[in-house]
Specification:
By secondary structure, the chain is α+β, with helices and mostly antiparallel strands. It folds into two domains: 33 residues; 74 residues, no CATH class. The chain has a two-stranded antiparallel ribbon. Strand 2 and strand 3 form a beta hairpin. The longest helix has 26 residues. It is elongated, with a radius of gyration of 29 Å.
Length: 118
């Protein structure tokens, strides 16, 4: 007497699906490992040959709880300095804000981004 197989669960399509799944997982793992080993160097700061103008006077709005005021600064864009107004930055507990600033490097100027420090 022959064994009857259930028509609802044919064996071959399930085996084929399992094989496809295994190949997909293996490919995704290899891709992830390949991307994990990529090292992206931080962009080199642009050296501007023209000194920045003096900072503009800003009157910050009233204090906001849980925020620190980050003063405005000059931004070098399309060959000219443009004033970027200040803004409120959420406080990071245990850190203090180090303001960004323009620093002279050789014959030019580079913008040092503001950041949180301990």
């Amino acid at each position: 007497m022959k064994e009857k197989r259930s028509p609802r669960f044919p064996v071959q399509p399930l085996a084929r699906m399992a094989r496809r799944l295994a190949v997909t997982v293996a490919a995704a793992t290899l891709l992830g490992l390949g991307l994990a080993s990529c090292v992206v160097a931080p962009p080199r700061p642009e050296v501007v040959r023209v000194a920045p103008p003096p900072p503009q006077a800003e009157i910050p709005p009233p204090p906001r709880p849980g925020h620190v005021w980050v003063g405005g600064h000059w931004v070098w864009r399309n060959g000219a300095y443009i004033w970027e107004p200040g803004h409120w930055q959420p406080v990071r507990v245990g850190y203090y804000w180090v303001p960004g600033h323009w620093a002279q490097r050789g014959a030019g100027w580079v913008w040092i981004e503001g950041h949180w420090a301990r």
